[in-house]
Design goal:
This protein is mainly α and 196 residues long. The chain folds into two domains: 19-82, Orthogonal Bundle (Helix Hairpins), CATH 1.10.287; 93-195, minor pseudopilin epsh fold, CATH 3.55.40. The mean pLDDT is 94. Helix content is 55%, strand content 11%. Strands 2-1-3 form a three-stranded antiparallel sheet.
Length: 196
């Protein structure tokens, strides 16, 4: 796992409605904590006793389960941070793909925002290699709910740590504000890289 580019986080001084303090806490405490735990798990896996492997409980089983939790937390947070820092104006090739697969941009946006209200953890716009379509998915935990063969393009963190300091319990306003900060150049480049 790579350690995310800290200079990108420090550049988020002008996000609309999402404070620098929230972003820094999100990055410093959560993201870096997941990186540290993932590294710790990698070290412990080197000496895990494979002879005691057991499906009910074993150190190896627990380490491998938590490895996916930490790894997915890292990957999803990096994708979340990556799409922030823009002017929020939808543009690029991905808009045509959204319109094709969802009927219209507004249909997609309405669905994505509704999922943000009902998910406990994450919402993703993904490219699903299983059928070659864009799909919105949710996950309540980092390592549960993901779909094999679907790659996230836009990632929204709806855990309370992502918005509570700035919005309290008003998740809906946080979701609206998130869209004001999307960097559609980055999103479009990600879409093109994934689909080409």
């Amino acid at each position: 796992m790579k350690n995310y580019n800290e200079s990108k986080i420090l550049s988020f001084t002008e996000l609309k409605g999402i404070s620098q303090k929230t972003i820094e806490n999100h990055y410093e405490k959560l993201y870096k904590g997941y990186v540290k735990k993932w590294q710790e798990i990698q070290d412990k896996l080197k000496s895990a006793d494979k002879a005691t492997a057991n499906a009910t409980f074993s150190d190896l089983r627990e380490l491998k389960l938590e490895e996916t939790f930490a790894a997915d937390a890292i990957i999803l947070h990096e994708a979340y941070f990556d799409v922030l820092g823009g002017d929020g104006k939808p543009s690029g090739e991905i808009i045509k793909a959204i319109e094709k697969d969802f009927g219209s941009y507004d249909n997609w946006l309405s669905d994505f925002k509704a999922l943000g209200l009902c998910s406990r953890g994450w919402v993703f716009l993904t490219y699903d290699f299983n059928d070659g379509k864009l799909r919105n998915y949710t996950a309540d935990l980092h390592n549960q709910g993901g779909v094999w063969g679907a790659t996230p393009i836009i990632v929204l963190d709806v855990y309370e740590h992502a918005y509570f300091a700035d919005f309290g319990t008003d998740r809906k306003s946080y979701i609206e504000t998130y869209f004001l900060n999307l960097n559609w150049d980055v999103i479009n480049k990600r879409y093109i890289k994934i689909t080409k």
